[in-house]
Structures are given as C-alpha cells and as structure tokens.
Design a protein that fits this description.
Number of strands: 76
Strand content: 35-45%
Helix content: under 10%
Structural class: mainly beta
Mean pLDDT: 94
Number of helices: 2
Largest sheet: 25 strands, mixed
Low-confidence stretches: 1-36
Length: about 700
C-alpha cells in the first residue's frame, strides 16, 4: 500500500520532504488503528486461572494497558495468577464469592484510570503469598466498593491501596487487609464513606480496616470527604483536622441521618450538606471556604468560622444552621434560593465577627438570635431578611441597606443606619418600631416602609441625618429623638403621629413639599427646621407638652393643624413659620424671622398674650384677616410684610420701650389700647391703622 502510494501519488512535482512527512502520518494512522485500540476483555472462567492465557478471556487475548477488564457474575471465586504491572481503563468485578489477583511478580500494581467497581457480595483480594500487589485508582478514576476489597500483605513489606480519584465505599462496602496493608488518599482525591463508624485510624471499625503498622491509614488533608451512610454516622477519628472539602449526603430517615464530628476541623473549601444533618457537637469548624445546604441542618454548639459564603438551595424543607457563626473579617454572602417553605434558611446561633452579612437570592433568611454581634454591614439585596427574635437580631450599629425586603416580623429592631430602595415591613401581627441612626451616619431610604400584617413605626436616633424620600404607608408613629429627619416626600412619614422628642427637621428634596398625610404631631422638645427647602406639614393637629421653641433657619415651615396644650410657642430663627390652624395653646412669642398669622386663632387662646420680641409678621392666607383679641406685648421692633391685610383685633398692646413698626405693604390694623410710657414710630410704605381708644 505504502509502495503504491509512493510510486503513484508521491511522485514529483511534490517536494520529497512533504512526501516523506505525509507518508509518516499515514503510517501513524494505520498503526493507531491496529496496535493500540482499547479492548474490553471478560474473564471466561468460573474460577481462577492464568491472566496471561489468551483463551481465558473473551475476546481471546491477554489484557494490556488501556483495556477494560470485567470479572463477570459467572465467576464465583478462585485465584487469577500471573497478573502483570498494568494500567487498565476499567476494572469491573461482578458476582459473588472471592476473586484473588496474584501478581506475576511481587510488588506489581493494578492501576485503574476510569472505572473501578466491586459488587455487593463480592470480595476482591489484591495479592497473595505467591505475588503481593498494590492497587491505584488514578485521579481520573471513579471507584465504588460495594463488596469487599482485601489487600493481602502478609510479611514485612508494605502494600498499598492508593486512591487518587473518586472512591465510594457505601454502606456494606469495606476495604480491609492483612499484614502490612496500607490505604492512602492523595490531595485532590475524593473518599465517600458509608460506614456508621466513618473512617478510623486503626482497629476493625469503619469503611477502611487495613492493618499495617505503625500507621496504615493515611487520609490527605487535601482530599475531599463525603459521608453517604443511610443511618447515623460518626465521621470517625481518621478524618483529618484539615480537609479540602466535607460533604454530607446521608440518606437515613429523620432522626437517623446525623453525621457527627469527633473534633474541630478546618475545611479549606466547601462544606456541603446535601441530605441529612451535620452535628459539629461542641467542636469548631475552625475555618470553612463555603457552605451549601439543601434544606438540611447543621447542629452543635461549636463555632463555624466562615472564610467564604453560604448558599441555601431550593428545597422542600427549611435549611437550618444552629451553631454560632463567626463571619471573620470579610463580608459574607448568604445566597438563599426560594422554595415552598416560608423560611428557606434559619440561622439560630449567634453571628459574630468583624465582617458583615449580605443577603442574596429570592428566598427568605431568618436571623433568630438576639445576641448577634457582628461589626459589619447588613445588606438585603434580594429576597427577604427576616427578624426572628425579640430584641432584634441586627447589631445596633450595623449599617443596613435594603433593596430586597426587611421583614421585622413582629419584633422591634435597632440598627445603625438604613439606606436603599427596597421594602421594610412586618409580616406578623403587633405594633413594632424600627430604630435607625445609632451609628451617627447620614443615609437616605427611598424605598417603601409599610405595615404588612403588623403596624410599623420608625424612630430616628443618632446625630446624623436620615432622609425619607419614598411614598411610605406605615401607620405607626415616627419619632425624631436625635439628629435630623429629612422629610422628602409628601407621604414620607406614613400616616401615624410625628413625635419630636429631640433632633430636627428638614426638607432637602430641592422643592417646596406638602405632606398629604396630615400627620398628628407631638412636639415634646424644642427643635429646628433647617429649611433647605420649604415644608408644609399639612393639617395634622399639634400637641405641646411644655413651652416649646421652634427655630426656622431658612425658607418656610407651615403648620396647618390646630396647636393645643396649655403652653406657649416661641418662633426663632431667620426663616418663616406659618400658622393657619384654629389653635388653643397658651400664646405665641416671635423672637426673629417671619411669623405668618393665617387664621384668626393661629396664635392660641384669645386670652393668651402675643409677644413680639422682633422679626416680621405677615398674613399670607390669600385674604384680609382679623385675629382674636389677643393681648400683645411689643418687646421689640418688628415689620409687617403686608402680603394681605391683617387686623390684630382689639387686644391691649403693651410697649416695653420705644418701638418702631415698619409696614412694608398693605394695612396692619391694631384696634386695642396701646399703653406704656414710650414712643411708637411708624415706618415703611404700608399702612398702620391704630383704632384703640
């Protein structure tokens, strides 16, 4: 064939070098399809025989490197002799009885690169007195020992079963040995363990029971360990104190599916609880790269120290972590996928550490321990973060950002600050309060605060500024106890009572704003309206519990509701305070700035004294207005701006010194008797009408 090609196809004009290269490639193709093809060879004897006898195999021929070998069900035992040093792709051992592989030379190794299985009820003995052997499952291989593998190593020479691949020893499976038999896992390998005793360092319990001395069972700290029992399991004292990953896939029924740690452990990468329960008991998970739960549970009183994130998969049951969790120094993300359950992941232990907690995923995460003490942020990016303990579960100084949903769940909660565009609500009955601002930072919440199944209230604490710019619907009270509350939406403070017990108000929205919710107001302390933009508080009633001073620094602060309480109201500051309710408080004092008197009873009960220490009065109601007959004390010069005419009634006026009244426009009428041994001077282009006797 090659000769024909050379004389016909490869004649010039083709260059000789090209022709020689092409011929070589054709030779390689032919060679690869003839000499190195993989073959599956099945042992044909019901008992033992010689490995090197071609007739003992079907198809006839002695297995070579790369072949698949099957010891079929028809084989019920015996010794296969003369086994070479060989690398098989697959080694499948079926049936029952005991099959022994005896080496052609002592120390030969059977290596499997793809699939290795030993059926339940079958015993595979590797080596005997005539030919001790080793076994290796390569890194590309997967093995399942449902029966028994016995490594025969009688004598002083060590023999090894080496797992560098993915080896499973399910319930009923066993790897044991005699003499100096040894079992090793290598870094990157996986060992799946079904025994109730797990993996042990010595003795005749557990999935591995080789007998070499002094240490015959070597479990790599770089390996992956998976517990696949169908009843309660101990991890066993052979599990290293450091592992690459730990997975729980126990399929036992409820109450009989727990895998229990024997000592503290470091998990370099992932902890995964796919089925069953992991009980760390009083031991710590010193560090873990990540945790994945599938509606499963981790129990214990030791601490889980996170070096990575936590994922809860969608499942039909709630995933639970009961031990304390230390977030470490970094922010840890808890990704919780949605499932049919109301609670997708429940964290019952104390959460500590200098890091923060980030909630991702469409599911719900319950924080259920009021002792949580982590120092970092709390972010609810998607899904629900639910408060699930009295006294609150988010540390008081934590900066909280909500773009998903924060469910207060019927519990009061105190946080460092609140920001974001999400939803704050309460999914349980009862009246509760969210207190924010304790970390003294300034934040904006532009999302929605609403009642849910309960009534939600808000308290602003701390020295910073808290801005509400969303259309909120909560009906609990809004309390300003410290700092500044920026009211930047017409329904920013919901529909409940505004309680000012400290702190100040402002509107930083950039435009004049009128509250449409007409909130009742309790002024329990003096306060300042900074007046970045003007604010109309609507027609909600105002209650004073003591003499009060309102300082308006700039622009206009409007009060349309009735002011009540047997106490005086003092206006200070260079801005404008507009009063337009029918008030019954015990009098008004103007110290500075502008006071718009926009109803006949704006200044309180008729018997109360209106004291002017300075500043400007005006009527901006839209028409002329006559007040009640308030007694008046003019203790300072003042201005009447004259937007609309104003009649101050017939109340007597007392001067405390020579006074100048400047009327800029319109007509200011004073109908009462003016007394005092002092002069009165009229200035300005407007009209001052004096009609008292």
């Amino acid at each position: 064939m090659l000769r024909f090609l050379r004389k016909s196809f490869f004649e010039p004009p083709f260059p000789h070098a090209v022709l020689r290269g092409a011929a070589f490639l054709v030779f390689l193709v032919i060679l690869s399809h003839s000499s190195f093809a993989q073959t599956t060879r099945t042992w044909t004897q019901t008992g033992g025989g010689n490995w090197a006898t071609a007739g003992n195999w079907s198809p006839a021929g002695v297995p070579v490197d790369g072949d698949d070998v099957i010891i079929p069900v028809s084989n019920t035992g015996g010794t296969i002799t003369n086994v070479p040093n060989i690398t098989l792709r697959d080694l499948i051992v079926q049936g029952t009885g005991t099959c022994t592989l005896s080496g052609a030379a002592a120390g030969n190794t059977v290596t499997v690169s793809r699939t290795f299985t030993v059926a339940s009820g079958k015993t595979l003995v590797i080596g005997d007195a005539a030919g001790r052997m080793n076994f290796t499952l390569e890194s590309t291989g997967t093995g399942t020992v449902s029966g028994t593998v016995t490594l025969s190593a009688s004598g002083a020479t060590d023999r090894f079963f080496i797992n560098s691949g993915d080896l499973s020893i399910p319930v009923g499976g066993l790897i044991d040995g005699t003499g100096e038999s040894n079992f090793l896992t290598t870094g990157g390998s996986t060992l799946r363990i079904g025994s109730p005793q797990g993996i042990t360092q010595s003795g005749s319990t557990g999935s591995i029971q080789v007998t070499g001395t002094p240490t015959s069972r070597s479990y790599s700290t770089g390996a992956n360990y998976v517990y696949i029992g169908n009843a309660n399991q101990a991890v066993g004292n052979g599990l290293p104190s450091t592992v690459n990953s730990l997975t729980i896939e126990n399929t036992g029924g409820g109450g009989n599916n727990t895998v229990t740690l024997a000592s503290s452990i470091t998990i370099t990468n992932a902890l995964t609880v796919t089925s069953g329960v992991l009980d760390i008991d009083g031991n710590n998970i010193t560090s873990v790269g990540s945790i994945t739960l599938n509606g499963t549970t981790i129990n214990g009183t030791g601490t889980i120290n996170l070096a990575g994130d936590v994922t809860s998969l969608a499942a039909s049951t709630t995933a639970v972590i009961n031990p304390p969790i230390n977030l470490g120094a970094g922010n840890r993300t808890f990704t919780v996928n949605d499932s049919p359950t109301t609670i997708d992941l429940n964290l019952n232990g104390i959460i500590s550490g200098s890091g923060g907690l980030i909630k991702e995923g469409t599911g719900s995460l319950n924080l259920s321990n009021a002792g949580n003490s982590y120092d970092g942020i709390t972010e609810v990016n998607t899904g629900i973060l639910r408060v699930n303990a009295a006294g609150g579960v988010i540390p008081n100084n934590s900066a909280v950002t909500v773009t998903g949903t924060l469910d207060l769940n019927g519990f009061n909660e105190t946080i460092g600050s609140l920001a974001g565009t999400g939803t704050v609500t309460s999914g349980a009955a009862g009246t509760i309060t969210l207190t924010t601002g304790g970390n003294n930072s300034s934040t904006t919440f532009s999302g929605i605060m609403q009642n849910g199944s309960g009534i939600v209230g808000l308290t602003k604490a701390g020295t910073g500024a808290f801005t509400l710019s969303g259309a909120n619907t909560y009906s609990g009270s809004t309390t300003v106890s410290s700092g500044t509350l920026n009211i930047n939406n017409s329904s920013a403070i919901g529909t409940g009572t505004l309680i000012i017990s400290g702190g100040n108000l402002d509107n930083t929205s950039g435009s004049f704003l009128t509250l449409t919710t007409n909130n009742p107001q309790n002024w329990n302390t003096d306060f300042t309206f900074f007046g970045t933009s003007s604010l109309n508080m609507g027609t909600g009633a105002v209650t004073l519990n003591a003499n009060r001073q309102v300082t308006v620094n700039a622009n206009e602060f409007r009060i349309g509701g009735n002011i009540s309480g047997a106490f005086r109201l003092t206006k200070s500051g260079g801005g404008t305070l507009t009063l337009s309710g029918a008030s019954t408080h015990s009098g008004t004092t103007l110290n500075a700035g502008t006071l718009n008197i926009n109803s006949s009873n704006a200044l309180g009960t008729a018997a109360s004294t209106f004291i002017i220490n300075g500043g400007t009065i005006d009527n901006t109601s839209g028409s002329a207005l006559t007040t009640a007959n308030y007694p008046q004390t003019w203790a300072g010069d003042f201005v009447f701006a004259g937007t609309n005419n104003l009649n101050l009634g017939t109340g007597a006026v007392s001067l405390t010194a020579n006074r100048t009244v400047t009327t800029n426009a319109g007509n200011l009428t004073v109908g009462g008797v003016i007394s005092g041994a002092f002069r009165l001077t009229k200035s300005g282009g407007g009209t001052l009408t004096l009609s008292g006797a």
